[in-house]
Amino acid sequence: MEAALEEFSQKGYEAASLSNVCAEKGISKGIIYHHFKDKDALYLLCVEDCFTRVSAYLQEAAGKLSGTAEEKLAAYFDARLRFFALHPVYLGIFAEAAFNSPAALAEEIARRRQGFDRLNIDVLTGVLGEAPLRAGLRAETVVEDFRMYMDYFNLRFRSAFRSGCSTDKILTEHENKCRRQLDILLHGVLEDGNEA
Q1: Cα 94 to chain centroid, rounded
Q2: How far is the C-alpha of 142 from the C-alpha of 167, rounded, in Å?
Q3: How far apart are the C-alpha atoms of 145 and 159, rounded to whole Å?
Q4: What digits encode the pLDDT tens for the residues 4-45?
Q5: 76: number of Cβ within 10 Å
Q6: Residue 195 CB contacts under 8 Å (≥ 6 apart), including other chains
Q7: CA–CA distance, 58 with 119 (Å, rounded to integer)
Q8: Where are the domains of the chain?
Q9: Residues contacting 64, CB < 8 A, separation 6+
């Protein structure tokens, strides 16, 4: 599993090789195929492990959030980046699964990241549910609209993978821009007192 995580994280699904996984730990391909149907099955297990671990880490961090809505959201995004600083082996897998999933595995990856997605929704809904919202807005509606926007926003990061930028740089840029988008969501774009 360690060798598979490293291989998929460093090289991505397409370039990863089961031969390299076996050579890294001195195991035979027969053992791999005894436990896994194919490369897809091993990759999906790595994706599942990644989302399970990052979700558990963030669940713990979410339980400690305090302060204003902005402070809570900033702390949550800090925790996301901190997880990958502490566990860099998951960075490449997370980034590929989140922003550039192999098309043939997209549905399976989406199933494995449901807990992570649900946690993000719950945290944002919880933070907004405790904050005073404008009349007529509900936290769930704001979160739904934000998620729809983020789906389009995340498409931009697919091209970053093809540009040759480092995965760490891509994820850091993504998280920083997510913060900016949340700030816009919370405060709008006009100076206080200005009406459109």
Answers
A1: 6
A2: 30
A3: 24
A4: 999 999 999 999 988 888 887 788 787 777 788 899 999 999
A5: 21
A6: none
A7: 8
A8: 46-187
A9: 75
Contact 79, 123 (CB under 8 A): no
40: its two tokens: 């897809």
**Residue indicated by tokens 């206080």:** 192
Cβ count within 10 A of residue 82:
14
Rounded CA gap, 56 and 79, in Å? 11
Six-digit token string for 12: 């991505």
Say which CATH topology domain 46-187 has. Answer: Tetracycline Repressor; domain 2 (1.10.357)
Q: What is the signed CA dihedral for 66, 69, 72, 78, rounded to 10 degrees? A: -160
Quickly tell me which residue has 């996301």 as its tokens: 80
Which 8-state DSSP code applies to residue 88? G
Q: Summarize pLDDT for 78-107 with one digit per residue, the tens.
A: 999 899 999 999 999 998 998 888 999 999
